[in-house]
Amino acid sequence: MGTPHPGSPPTGELPFFVYGTLLPGEPNHELFLRGRTTGERPAVLPRALLYDGPGYPYAIEGHGRVHGTLLTAVPGVYGELLGLLDHLEEYLGPGHPRNLYERVVREVELPGESGEGADGPGRDRAVEGRPGHGRAEEGEGIAAGAGPVRAWVYLAAAAVTRSLRTGGSLIDGGRWVTGRPPGGPRTP
Question: Domains of the chain: which residue ranges?
Answer without folding.
Answer: 16-174
